[in-house]
From TrEMBL:
One of its GO terms (molecular function) is heat shock protein binding. Gene3D superfamilies: Tetratricopeptide repeat domain (1.25.40.10). One of its GO terms (cellular component) is cytosol. One of its GO terms (biological process) is protein targeting to mitochondrion. This is Mitochondrial import receptor subunit TOM34. It comes from Neomonachus schauinslandi. Interacts with HSP90A, VCP, ATP6V1D, KIAA0665, AMPK, and DMAP1 through its TPR repeat. It is found in: Cytoplasm; Mitochondrion outer membrane. The keyword Phosphoprotein applies. TPR repeats lie at residues 261-294. It comes from the Eukaryota.
């Protein structure tokens, strides 16, 4: 006969998960702690399981406002399984709550090296950038701790990141974005946005599209009114074959400037890649009304029509 559910590591972890879902965070903390002690007493090496238990207990601490213990448990989880997504995000949230903005920035930036589409990390970078500019001034980047370089092997591990980390998808509505910004950009913000956009443009020229996305996202955190920043970020998404994200950014660009030819062309390319040929043709038609002699658009139109046949 196997061990009773509550007498096994798996059983204790499952019970802790249920308590967490029920909002009983103190009880979940006790259960995860018991599971950790049992696992460690067994003497067999299972770093992945141990890391998950530390990370789960960290989530409880974070819910209870115990940020210091959250950071301690996340650090333990990361020592066992470096570059794990959940403990990095939880530790970043805890650092942010304690106003340790440089450390929070480093963790959010590390997450984006693993997957540059994680909405909570993108939003976190935006908040931390504003906080760091306000607290440390324009040279804030020089005062940051070093940001670890995520190896390619760690990036590949997260090719199939759970859906909860991809909340900012194509369905995200413009009104949500504007509501979250909720402020009029100052002249200083607009200038910072311009500089960051130019930095993104330079990275595109070098073929570093992932880093360019980060720069464009930072730029938009200061001012989200420039159509070109969205269409430039869409170009990066296209290069990385992130077609739904490209459609989303082109749509935002066109909301700001309905005559943005590059946004129409790039969205048509993205729709073609997604096999939404009718939408692609509609964008090409709109583009050709603005620029009837646009050669690349006419060639794309022929390719899409061939795909329809």
């Amino acid at each position: 006969m196997g061990p009773k559910l509550a007498d096994s590591v798996d059983g204790l972890r499952a019970a802790g998960n249920q308590s967490f879902r029920n909002g009983q965070f103190a009880e979940a903390t006790v259960l995860y702690s018991r599971a950790l002690r049992m696992l460690q007493a067994q003497g067999c090496s299972n770093p992945e399981e141990e890391s998950i238990l530390f990370s789960n207990r960290a989530a409880c601490h974070l819910k209870d406002g115990n940020c210091r213990d959250c950071i301690k448990d996340c650090t333990s989880a990361l020592a066992l399984m470096p570059f794990s997504m959940k403990p990095l995000l939880r530790r970043a949230s805890a650092y942010e709550a304690l106003e340790k903005y440089p450390l929070a920035y480093v963790d959010y930036r590390t997450v984006l090296q693993i997957d540059d589409r994680v909405a909570s990390a993108l939003d976190g970078i935006s908040r931390m950038t504003r906080a760091l500019v306000d607290s440390l001034g324009p040279e804030w980047r020089l005062k940051l701790p070093s940001i670890p370089l995520v190896p390619v092997t760690a990036q590949k591990r997260w090719d199939s990141v759970p859906l909860e980390y991809h909340k900012e998808k194509a369905k995200r509505k413009f009104r949500e974005t504007t509501t979250s910004k909720g402020r009029v950009s100052s002249a200083g913000d607009v200038e910072r946005a311009r500089v960051l956009k130019e930095e993104g443009n330079e990275l595109v020229k070098k073929g570093n599209h992932k880093k360019a996305i980060e720069k464009y996202s930072e730029s938009l955190s200061f001012s989200d009114m420039e159509s070109a920043t969205y269409s430039n970020r869409a170009l990066c998404h296209l290069a990385l074959k992130q077609y739904k994200e490209a459609v989303r950014d082109c749509t935002e660009a066109l909301r700001r400037d309905g005559k943005n030819v590059k946004a129409l062309y790039r969205r048509a390319q993205a729709y073609k890649a997604l096999k939404d040929f009718k939408s692609s043709l509609a964008d090409i038609s709109s583009l050709l009304q603005l620029e009837p002699r646009n050669g690349p658009a006419r060639r794309l139109q022929q390719e899409v029509k061939q795909s329809l046949n």
